[in-house]
Amino acid sequence: MVTINGQSVEAAGKTVAQYIEEAGYNAVRIAVERNCEIVPKAKYAETVLADGDIVEVVNFVGGG
């Protein structure tokens, strides 16, 4: 299990890119932190989530 934004999710073995696509996030408007380290967007497709990982996905919202 992977903890994503405080919830346990069965995402171990998936890449960050696979997870964010399945979860419906817009990759352009988010930032991903895995185990207290920012994952560069260029690494989403090669970063594989593992059991015990703690992930935070932050969605940027425009406003004015």
Task: Provide a concise account of the structure shown.
The chain is an alpha+beta fold and 64 residues long.
Radius of gyration: 11 Å
Our count of domains comes out at: 1
CATH class equals: Alpha Beta
Give the termini separation.
38 Å
The helix content, as a percent range, equals 10-25%
Q: How many strands, which pairing sense, and closed or not: the largest β-sheet?
A: 5 strands, mixed
Please report which band the strand proportion falls in: under 5%, 5-15%, 15-25%, 25-35%, 35-45% or over 45%: 25-35%
Report on the architecture of this protein.
The protein has 64 residues and is an alpha+beta fold. It has a single domain, classed as Ubiquitin-like (UB roll). It is built from 1 helix and 5 strands; from the N terminus they run E-E-H-E-E-E. It has one helix spanning 16-23, and strands at residues 2-4, 7-9, 30-34, 37-39, 54-59. Strand 3 and strand 4 (37-39) form a beta hairpin. It is globular. The relative contact order is 0.32. The mean pLDDT is 95.
How would the blueprint of this fold be written?
Layout: E1 2-4, E2 7-9, H1 16-23, E3 30-34, E4 37-39, E5 54-59
Parallel strand pairs: 1-5
Antiparallel strand pairs: 1-2, 3-4, 3-5
